Amino acid sequence: MQVTLYSREGCHLCEEALEVVRAECTAAGVPWQVVDIADDPVLQQRYAELIPVVLVDGREVGHWRIEVSALRRALRPRWWQRGAARSRR
C-alpha cells in the first residue's frame, strides 16, 4: 500500500492535509510521499484546481479538505490483503 499527497508550495490546505496524512500513515505503518505538482506539467493540468489530493494505491481518497475517516477507511487492510499476507509467511 502506498499513499501519495499531491501538493504545492504555499498551499495552506496542503499543509493541513500533510498533517493528516503523516499522522494516519504513521499510525497505520503505511509508507507515504508528497509530490509537488509544480514539478510536473501533467500533474499541474490534472490537479491544479483540486489540491491537495490524496491517493491510496492510485485511487483518490479526497481533495481540498481531507477527511480523516475517509483516509482511515482507505488504509484499513482488506480481507484479501490480510489473506495474502498470511499466505506469504
Automatic annotation (TrEMBL):
It comes from the Bacteria. Pfam families: Glrx-like. InterPro entries: Glutaredoxin-like (IPR008554), Glutaredoxin-like_YDR286C (IPR052565), Thioredoxin-like_sf (IPR036249). This is Glutaredoxin family protein.
